[in-house]
Design a protein that fits this description.
about 300 residues, about 65% helix, about 10% strand
């Protein structure tokens, strides 16, 4: 095999596989839906009650209140530099998805601008505005795009300065909400922080889902009995991994399995019952694909 052939194989292996038309349509649908949901959260809950979001959208809301110029125009123009940054830092597919999402968001906010507010109650507007906005942003992120350029900027700055992406976003939003306090009033700024926190948690739920699973690692001398019990009493498959004690040098079999949150307590009781001295470590898993995770019948 020639060097050129090896290079071609490596390059072909590194290339992203092309998406099917169905996957492209699905991605496009949810990005558009997410952008419209975010526009709803902004225009029918937050903006009529002078509540802000964080990031570029937050700056756009402040500028809209100062100038009266269309909010959608500010959202699109302020995000343009981040299209180029996104292309360099994350890739072409992400950039195209982001351009589509932000374009739809800008158009939808302009279209919904004259729709009457769903509620004048500040607390209801804050809570439901945050939920709807967060659900929209979460959908877009889940399907490979973004609706705000501040995250892209944070990724870029993270490579140049000793701060995490989360710390940059937090500092950026502290500045925005402080500025909003001077422009819109401090009570509105505090409601805005609450809406942002609600949106942030909603984004996590939409991206990670409600069906969070748990991974369990068990080290015991009774590995076979515990593995059989998990299969029979929980209906979950297990995988045995080869391990070695760091201190003793003894060979060990490590049991690995995945259960739901509701099954965690029962798993612990099985391990405790069969080997009270067993080592058990449990961690959160946001997504499980492939393998044989499907639950078997319990007899």
């Amino acid at each position: 095999m020639t060097e050129e052939t090896i290079e071609q194989q490596i390059k072909s292996g590194l290339q992203h596989p092309k998406l099917t038309k169905l996957k492209i349509a699905k991605r496009g649908f949810f990005i558009v839906l997410g952008a419209i949901m975010m526009a709803l959260g902004i225009e029918v809950f937050l903006v009529p009650n002078m509540i802000m979001d964080g990031g570029i959208v937050g700056i756009s809301i402040i500028l809209y209140n100062l100038t009266g110029i269309g909010l959608g125009l500010f959202i699109f123009l302020l995000n343009i530099p981040f299209f180029f940054l996104g292309y360099k830092q994350i890739g072409k597919t992400f950039t195209i998805s982001t351009i589509i999402g932000i374009s739809i968001l800008s158009l939808a906010t302009n279209y919904l601008h004259h729709v009457a507010a769903f509620t004048q109650d500040m607390l209801l507007a804050t809570v439901f505005g945050g939920i709807v906005l967060g659900a929209g942003v979460g959908l877009v992120i889940r399907y490979g795009g973004a609706l705000d350029g501040s995250e892209i900027l944070a990724i870029l700055l993270n490579k140049k300065f000793p701060f995490s992406v989360g710390e940059f976003i937090m500092l950026f939003n502290v500045f925005i909400f402080t500025w909003g306090g001077f422009v819109l009033g401090w009570d509105r700024a505090m409601y805005s922080v609450l809406a942002y926190v609600i949106a942030f948690k909603t984004i996590d739920i939409v991206i990670d889902g409600f069906d969070e699973s748990k991974s369990a690692w068990i080290i015991s001398d009774k590995d076979a009995e515990i593995g059989d019990a998990i299969l029979a009493r929980l209906g979950r498959g297990v995988t045995y991994l080869k391990g070695e004690g760091g201190y003793s040098g003894d060979d060990k079999r490590v049991i690995f399995c995945i259960v739901t949150r509701l099954e965690e307590a029962k798993l612990k009781s099985i391990v405790e019952e069969l080997d009270p001295s067993a080592f058990l470590a449990v961690a959160d898993i946001n997504e499980v694909r492939g393998g044989r995770f499907k639950k078997k019948d319990i007899h």
